[in-house]
Amino acid sequence: MKRAILLLSLISLFACKNEKKEQVNSDENKEQEIEQNKKEKDSVYLFTSFREPADEGLYLAYSRDGYHWENLGGPYLAPGVGESGIMRDPSVEEGPDGTYHMVWTTDWRGGNGFGYASTKDFINWSEQRFIPAMAHEPDVVNVWAPELFYDKDRDRFIILWASTIPYRYEKGQEEEKNNHRMYFTTTKDFQEFTPTKLLMNSGFSMIDCVIVRRGKDDYVLVMKDNTRPNRNLLVGFAADPLGPYYDFSQPFTGFLTEGPTVIQQDGKYIIYYDNYGKKTFSAVETDDFVDFKNIDEKIELPEGHKHGTITKIPKQILDGLLAKSEDLKH
């Protein structure tokens, strides 16, 4: 009898502890949700950009609604690494400590890496560094459009880019020096990087890949099919941010389109892209990455805006950028 009473007491004690633990976890989740909602409410969108011929550096635009963009001008960071004196395709991702990390294309041809710098406010920047991610490939033609993705499930940054290594892969109508595949490295601190690897061999030339996390074990890769007859955007799906990606869709954009960037807005995903054949920027909306609706009539971007990415910034950072923007005009 005593043993039975003791057993019941222990069961009751463990049950109470579990209930308290569940309550604590629930309270923490609610606090995190409230904090996230507050952060969303007190933030605006920031679109990185450049202006041809890409020798001036980083340009910026901002939006409060995700559709209408106001020009902040530039440059906010002049190109300082690479042999060509250019800064193209600036990709920005915020880290968990509030630092914004940026990578960019430094050379149209002949480079074996990409540029990197970080900032807290987009005005004051760290020293620029050149990351020679393809130095181990002596025949590499280029390193194009590096794209950052913060993999919060593993607390690491993934950097994707397109490179051509002649005669390495099968090709269609591409010249050997224009037959791209996607490569990647990962880092936790932008000091040490994992060895460069091939993301996948899709069987066709591809560039401008963007990873989108829809949920746990649910990722979308938005990419440009860079084969000569196509040169348009499509998507693939995977259970891991590094793939393998499968079920490639039909193109959802027209001929001569590239440079996608994706935001989630009003329960839908907006994909902005460079409609360079028509010398403008375009956008589509989707809620499932299966059906896409053109929303060009809803968006407005600064003249000359080129391939970049969208991130969110607190309004106090925007205040500083608005003041700096006025200085840049004089």
Automatic annotation (TrEMBL):
Q: Which CDD domains match?
A: GH43_Bt3655-like
Question: Which Pfam families does the record associate with it?
Answer: BT_3657-like_N
Give the highest taxon in the source lineage: Bacteria
- Keyword Lipid metabolism carried by entry: no
Annotated Arabinosidase BT-3657-like N-terminal domain ranges read 41-130
Keyword terms = Hydrolase
Entry's InterPro entries? BT_3657-like_N, GH43_arabinanases, Glyco_hydro_beta-prop_sf
For this protein, what is any one GO molecular function term?
A: hydrolase activity
Name of the protein in its database record: Glycoside hydrolase family 43 protein
Q: Which organism is it from?
A: Gramella jeungdoensis
